[in-house]
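Sorry to interrupt, but I need a hand with the structure work. Can you supply me with one protein entry, sequence and fold together? No commentary is needed, just the two lines. Leave the record below and I will have a look.
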Amino acid sequence: MCTRRLSRLLAQRPALLPHDPHIGVTDLDRTVRVVRDALTALDVEFEEPAEGTFVALLPGERKLRTTCSLVVGPHSLSVNAFVVRHPDENADGVHQWLLRQNAKHPGLAFGIDPLGDVYLVGQLPVGAVTPDEVDQLLGRVLDAADSAFNVLLELGFASSIRREWEWRVSRGESLANLSAFEHLIRPSGESGD
């Protein structure tokens, strides 16, 4: 499971909460406590693989789960959420679409890792971290990931979706979770009945 792998990687990193003369330990402790309490109050499924590092699973509609890491650092709370793996095709089109979306999500931006996988990233200053801000941040992450998911699949995985559709039809399998992509299979105006 992606969450376990991410938890292990985060736990292997050096401590993220070193003493910093510019910020009191109590501020770090307070921020960690605020994030932990907010996740608990929001009834979000999460793990804390290391002090100040949280891995949360956000339930969505189009993207059923968004894995989101929240890391409390000496100056900021950073958020990093996996959206979709690197596109199989049309990478330039995917990247252009992502760049156009960045202006629509205050405090967040789409980015890619060295493998080309798509993430949402953002930061909040430690002093701005409150339960309401954590709630709003997670809401923005979930909204951005969920609303982008089907578009990213269409742009970067259309051939795979068509192959999966054909495979399921040939075996009489359900097409229920592919119904959002029916327009990629059938010409306009043609019904699936």
About this structure: The beta strands are 45-50, 53-59, 65-72, 76-84, 108-112, 118-125. The first strand starts at residue 45 and ends at 50. The helical segments are 2-12, 25-41, 91-101, 131-171, 182-185. The chain has a mean pLDDT of 86.
